[in-house]
Design brief:
single chain, 2 strands, mainly alpha
Length: about 170
């Protein structure tokens, strides 16, 4: 009897604790689409990326042209000249790879630019979400855009518009 009473008490306590937690959802994609600064930052990133990619492509084309010339001239070249041409081609390919890494690598220019443009926007959104969560006693706020495991969520717990309003981008 005592054991049954303890189990019932624990189940009731667990049920009350679960009910006390409040959850909310945000749709980060929706929020970002409604922030003009994000669109401008994205456009700047795209322009820089295209510019840098064209520089990398130009070097790659130069290396390819050097290789084609080498293939057509190789029958007329001495071993020493062949080795020199091969080294020049390899140096051009290395230069291309280095430039690609400089611009697009893990610590490259694109990463740094994205960080400098996007971090302030993300921090602003995070602070707005945190304020709303504190005000409305939400224990957890989940991003539905990145939470693959959410199958269904009632729209009443989506606070995306509240976040936009807090940031000054909505009614």
């Amino acid at each position: 009897m005592k054991k049954t009473l303890t189990i019932v008490f624990l189940l009731l306590a667990a049920g009350l604790t679960a009910n006390a937690q409040r959850f909310a959802l945000i749709d980060m994609e929706y929020i970002l689409k409604n922030i003009p600064a994000y669109e401008r930052a994205n456009e700047q990133l795209n322009q820089s990326s295209k510019k840098w990619q064209s520089e990398v492509d130009q070097l790659a084309e130069e290396a390819q042209a050097m290789y084609k010339n080498y293939q057509s001239e190789s029958v007329f070249l001495s071993e020493e000249q062949k080795n020199q041409k091969e080294e020049e081609i390899i140096a051009k390919e290395k230069e291309t790879a280095e430039l690609r890494r400089k611009y697009f690598g893990p610590e490259g220019e694109l990463y740094k630019k994205r960080e400098s443009l996007m971090k302030p926007i993300q921090d602003e959104i995070y602070n707005a979400v945190k304020e709303i969560a504190d005000q409305k006693n939400y224990s957890v706020v989940v991003d539905r855009a990145s939470a693959v495991s959410i199958v269904f969520a009632t729209p009443s717990i989506d606070i995306s518009n509240d976040v936009l309003a807090k940031l000054g981008y909505s009614d």
